[in-house]
Amino acid sequence: MLRSLLFAVLLLLSQLAVAQKAVLYGDNPAAGKYAQVRAVKLYYETYGAGPPLLLLHGNGGSSKEFAKTIPYFAKKYRVIAVDSRAHGKSVDRTDSLSFEQLADDCASLLTQLRLDSAYVLGWSDGGITALLLALRHPEKVKRLAATGANLWPDSTALMPELWQQMKRGYQEGRTQTFTDPTRRNDWKVFLLDWRHPHIPLAALAGIKAPAFIIAGDRDVIRPEHTVAIYQNLSRAWLWILPNSGHATLHEHADEFNHKVEAFFQARSIAPPAR
User: Fold this and answer.
1) What is the DSSP letter of 272?
2) Which of 39, 54, 75, 232 is the most interior residue, by most CB within 10 Å?
3) Displacement of CA 205 from its chain's centroid (Å)
4) Is the model's pLDDT at 94 over the cut of 80?
């Protein structure tokens, strides 16, 4: 009898563990909703309860990228993982795409959700969007963490290998006519990083929210560019992860989550070292 009971308990625990692992972040009907935001149908998922935390993914990606992030922060925060316009499940039939649009989308979504402000964590293009959100809508950002962000598109900000790869991609695609909707959207998303952003270093002085600037020591962003972003903010932390590429939040998920949480909870953020 005891053995049968023990077996039943172990089986139940095993089933619960499988159920937990089965959560498909970025494709979870139980957590996903759509919001009509500025002429686009924006998809987002929410998890947990507490202070709002907005998660912003990278170019060509979606909220699926936060599978190692959401479970940690959902214990203390109301996590809102968004698919940017033209990405993931978000529906965008417009012809143009810019980081200013993405930032304004985020501000409108927060307003629609009746949230005065939120913590923001952005990766790659999401980090750029986070910076612009803090610039264009300062009242919406409590604190922001940006990993792998750049301020302009050239080889002084991006590693030369990546920039040359992007050049080749542009040369191959610029004379083509994309009739397939998926390929046309992919080209629009590619042009976002080819043509944008254009944020002067001096403009960062306008960001009043504390910022945590992060990159890997083998990132596709030049380390001196990451340091320059940090140095031109009024209140900021800097973290260059050893033995990490661009995907800091994946390659060092536990350490990354703990550090970002520590930043969000820190009592004060000193001005950066000049």
Assistant:
1) P
2) 54
3) 22
4) yes
